[in-house]
Amino acid sequence: MCIVLFLVSFLVATAEGGRDAGLVTRVKETIVPYYASPSELNAYWQSVFPNKPIPSSILDHLSAPSGNKMKDMEKEHYWSVYSDRLTEGDAKIFHNWAHRIASEKLLYPETVFTAGSKINLYIDRAVALHSPYLHRDIADSIPMSTKNFTDITAMFAPVSPSMARDMWSTLSSCEHPREVAGEQKACTTSLESMKGFSALALGTGNLRAFSTSLDVPEEGISSPSQRYEVAAVRAITPRAATNTVTCHSMSFPAALFYCHAVNPTRIYEVTLKREGGASIPESRTPAMVQALAVCHVNTSGFDPTLRYWVKLGLKPGEASVCHFLTRGDVLWAPASAT
């Protein structure tokens, strides 16, 4: 059933258990749940990927934060604008808004993914990690456009100024993403549409989904003064490179992913060990990290003004560009390539 958003009234329902009560819409005295329940999402997953585990980056959206994470300061944290914490000189716009405004410290050459290499580890924070999934029919009925910004914010009222600012940025990026030659992209607002786009982009419905490990904190990792040694590297996809889709969780009250394919890619599972290990007192970075890294092999269409190229003394197309996945990202690959 498709709900015409502008002809119905939206209510905020509260109940024990917090967010799971969620939003509902009333149509001719029928209450239609706004959010998909965990059991419904699990049933869908098992119907399309029987006996395959759900990636943690998807599971995170099925459970609300608890305890201290529900404090007002933490709520505000989920809606803070990442670029506000970067100086102009330290921030560049990466090749696609899916990677958000981020420091170029997040980028690595593929050569560092060799056992024994030492790096300062930077992994971006996860955005809106606990935003719940909408029902597919509800999600499909939302006009994801800045032209409908007022109606969309009314659906999720009350909306704080910072939340509204992030919602506008997300809608704007969905409408006008920064493109790389040959890139395929879409903003997906349901689990079904995320899988559907990935299948279309990769030319097969026989897919595997991956997420980075729970070793990576939600707030990411920034180690300007502590170095990590690459302890082990495992190729998830063939060294010859293959096509994949990466879906980045975006700032929005409901689960919304910016999915894009900048192919070909190579995917690695990288195990890193912090120098000094557990002996470093009060360190805010984990002693061991196992994280997924994506390497974009064809970089000929990338921004030539990135300091990344200056640092390497190279030009776009002469080296791959790699970055680690956040806790909120989902990677899709053909099952035959993994």
UniProtKB/TrEMBL annotation:
It comes from the Eukaryota. Transmembrane segments: none annotated. The keyword 4Fe-4S does not apply. This is BURP domain-containing protein. PANTHER family: BURP DOMAIN PROTEIN USPL1-LIKE, BURP DOMAIN-CONTAINING PROTEIN 10. PROSITE patterns: BURP (PS51277). Residues 101-335 form the BURP domain. Residues 1-17 form the signal peptide. Keywords: Signal.
